[in-house]
């Protein structure tokens, strides 16, 4: 049922973004895989590489029928995101789904002791990156003829509702996503395009490993005990829910913030 549908996924080179690309490809989507693939000096850990992005695209092309392609863009750069939309339209004729997975982790100290540079990157990537993606992809989805089944999706976090010490900017950005998604859903109204977010708990990714480092924990596995299920999530589990929300079957859902958190939010 997803044959012919086109998706743009940011933060596609690893983690939840990479798992989402793989799941969409298996379901027949054509996917433009967007990632900055460069480190940021304001963050304390290495980001995804070109090799990571190429591997995601290869896996998607090997396992799916729709096709996948890489596009290098930083979600803070509106001009590059506009170019990504143009590239997807040129390749596949339009856009049906936009999924904002790009994220950055930074902090490790109380807000007033966290560097302004680190805090700004966390806010810009995690929140402004979502707004930027919506700004360029929703007009493209509105160009699809009615009746539409466009989907705008963002990755929020349990941190949107749970106070995480030493990660104040991250929590602020993720809470901002949830407010934005609700407002966007109302603005889209009966256009045929929905806006939803998935709110993961502790997921076994490089970002969670960085969180463990910021908290001086020996390993990310330490976060498992916070959730009733006493385990970390796998990125594939989050991607499965994202893929449902991207599908035409989710048309009755808009403005929803869906927890996928092993019970962390209870």
| Euclidean distance between termini CA atoms | 35 Å
Major beta-sheet overview: 7 strands, parallel
Number of DSSP strands?
7
What order do the helices and strands follow? EHEHEHEHEHEHHE
- CATH homologous superfamily identity: NAD(P)-binding Rossmann-like Domain
Low-confidence stretches: none
Percent of residues in helical segments? 40-55%
Radius of gyration: 17 Å
Sheet with most strands: strand arrangement: 3-2-1-4-5-6-7
The helix count comes to 7
Overall pLDDT score: 97
Number of domains: 1
- CATH topology label: Rossmann fold
The SS-based structural class is alpha/beta
> Into which percentage range does the β-strand content fall?
5-15%
Organism: Sporichthya brevicatena
Protein name: Mycofactocin-coupled SDR family oxidoreductase
Keywords: Oxidoreductase
Family: Belongs to the short-chain dehydrogenases/reductases (SDR) family.
């Amino acid at each position: 049922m997803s044959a012919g549908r086109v998706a743009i996924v940011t933060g596609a080179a690893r983690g939840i973004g990479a798992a989402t690309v793989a799941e969409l490809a298996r379901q027949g989507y054509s996917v433009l895989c967007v990632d900055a693939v460069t480190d940021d000096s304001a963050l304390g850990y290495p980001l995804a590489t070109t090799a990571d992005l190429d591997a995601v695209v290869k896996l998607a092309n090997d396992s799916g029928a729709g096709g996948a392609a890489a596009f290098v863009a930083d979600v803070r750069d509106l001009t590059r995101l506009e170019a990504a939309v143009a590239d997807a339209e040129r390749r596949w004729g339009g856009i049906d789904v936009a999924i904002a997975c790009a994220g950055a982790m930074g902090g490790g100290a109380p807000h007033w002791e966290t560097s302004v540079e680190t805090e700004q990157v966390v806010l810009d990537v995690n929140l402004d990156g979502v707004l930027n993606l919506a700004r360029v992809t929703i007009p493209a989805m509105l160009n699809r003829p009615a009746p539409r089944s466009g989907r705008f999706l963002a990755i929020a976090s349990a941190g949107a509702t749970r106070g995480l010490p030493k990660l104040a900017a991250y929590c602020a950005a993720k809470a901002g996503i949830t407010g934005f998604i609700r407002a966007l859903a109302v603005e889209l109204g009966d256009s045929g395009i929905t806006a939803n977010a998935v709110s993961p708990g502790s997921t076994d990714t490089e970002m969670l490993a960085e969180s463990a480092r910021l908290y001086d924990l020996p390993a990310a596995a330490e976060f498992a005990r916070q959730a009733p299920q006493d385990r970390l999530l796998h990125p594939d589990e989050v991607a499965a829910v994202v893929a449902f929300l991207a599908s035409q079957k989710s048309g009755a859902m808009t403005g929803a913030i869906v927890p996928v958190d092993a019970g962390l939010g209870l």
